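[job 4471] stage=fold_predict status=RUNNING
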Amino acid sequence: MSDSHSHSPMFDYQPALPISNGKTFMWLFLSTEIMFFAALIGTFIVLRFGAVAWPSTHDVHLAEIWGATNTFILICSSVTIVLALEAAKKDNASSAKGWMLLTFLLGSVFLGIKAYEYQAKFSHGIYPQQPHSQIYEKADIYYAQAVRMRLSTLKTELESTTDRTEDQNEQIEVIDDIALRLVDPAEKAMRENPDSPAGRVLLLKLADEIYPRASIHENHANAGHAATPDSRFTLVSTSAEGDTGHLAGFNDKHPWLKLPIMIPGGNMWASTYFLLTGFHALHVIIGLIAFVVLLGMTLNRTSAGVIENVGLYWHFVDLVWIFLFPLLYLF
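[job 4471] inference complete, writing structure tokens
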């Protein structure tokens, strides 16, 4: 009896989770990140679909092609970091470092495209919040007043110059033309008859000539009212609109003006867009820093665990963008 007990099988019990401490902490960290981005995305959905007005993507110079390109780039980077892990497990350090370098480059390209998109917003006065933002939600008397104040400030600065150049004289002529042809009639109509639709039409005309919104002109053309762009505007293709270009108002023709622009729902859009993409870009930067650290190591079998943990983080960053892309670019 005792002999049978002495030969009974022995079991080894794992005193903790059957994964490494590093991976355990990474999953705990990612769980907090999931809750963080879930709150941000959930708030965006509530604000987006509960807003009275929301700009179209082209109204705020957001091009779907760049969002789709960045999505493809991040998906490819998820593949390359997996290949780096597999090469490290096979003790092929040089191959692992090559794949890691490619992952780093893809992440850098993503940030470069995002910086290009940001510049397209900044160059048109689209910022998260005032006083930097030039966005007004509606074309009313306050908008006309802001335009007049900007024109008056510019004219005062130009006229205070002792030796004015020909370009400065032309700038004064542009300012006077906008004030006399657009601002004065709109303000006069609103003063004489505030309830008349004529004043509001003139204010909308003022806003449209300063910053023509793509959605308005596209809908106008689709309704059969116009087959070609409005003759008041020129077509430019230097922004994030891609090859199709966009209509250029006064702010595009004369970048020094920097007049207030009218985009219904624009301030809320800018706040949510820059918040979501800004936090995501920050996580991308952290991932790139981790890649730089890994590139300074020998990526053999012993470092496979570190590569796997960094890869988990990078996969999470990619997954977040896959949610952000349709929400920000397609709806």
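[job 4471] summary: The chain has a mean pLDDT of 86.
[job 4471] exit 0
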